[in-house]
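Fill in residues.
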């Protein structure tokens, strides 16, 4: 990359990732401008394209890094569980909490940044992205589905279930007239129902 040393390229790329995570989390995909990102790291807007093909490519890079962090954290959570039922409960609890507390995931699912990503990213890139995202739970999905007491026997079905469940967080936001405590109680009931439903007595 002409004009930048290796150290400068690394600094700029990391700066764009940091700025992107902050701005996508705060303003969402559509309201984040490349100009705002490049100003954060002190480069011209046109220089952005020497590092990322598009704003969406940066977004996917950030999500990929989040996936790596989540994979490490969920491994620690699940390894601490004493038995299969506790492991499933802890895994689902972690899943729900991450979706609600991580502003980037929240924007992606609840505030529909995912639609902008789908609209602007080639299909093959999207397929690769979803394959990579599924690797967070894939080892556990494979292990759980081999257990006789686990109701689902196809890992892909379980991963699909998790994708569907991610949209329950979006649903919580739609009920403005219901107290948060009621929805939290409903989510806890959903969690326990899932745990009970996934295990055969």
């Amino acid at each position: 990359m002409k004009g930048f040393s290796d150290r400068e390229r690394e600094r700029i790329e990391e700066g764009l990732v940091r700025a992107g995570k902050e701005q996508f989390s705060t303003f969402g995909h559509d309201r984040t401008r490349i100009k705002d990102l490049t100003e954060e790291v002190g480069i011209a807007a046109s220089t952005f394209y020497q590092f990322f093909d598009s704003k969406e490519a940066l977004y996917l890079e950030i999500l990929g890094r989040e996936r790596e962090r989540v994979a490490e954290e969920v491994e620690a959570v699940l390894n601490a569980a004493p038995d299969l039922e506790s492991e499933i409960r802890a895994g689902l609890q972690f899943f729900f909490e991450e979706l609600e507390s991580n502003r980037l995931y929240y924007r992606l699912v609840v505030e529909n940044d995912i639609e902008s990503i789908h609209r602007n990213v080639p299909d093959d890139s999207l397929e690769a992205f979803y394959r990579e995202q599924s690797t967070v739970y894939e080892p556990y999905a494979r292990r759980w589905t081999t257990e006789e007491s686990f109701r689902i026997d196809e890992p892909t079905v379980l991963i699909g279930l998790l994708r569907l469940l991610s949209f329950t967080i979006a649903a919580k936001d739609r009920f403005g007239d219901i107290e948060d405590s009621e929805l939290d109680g409903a989510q806890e009931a959903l969690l326990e129902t899932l745990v009970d439903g996934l295990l055969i007595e």
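The chain has two domains: 1-52, 65-198.
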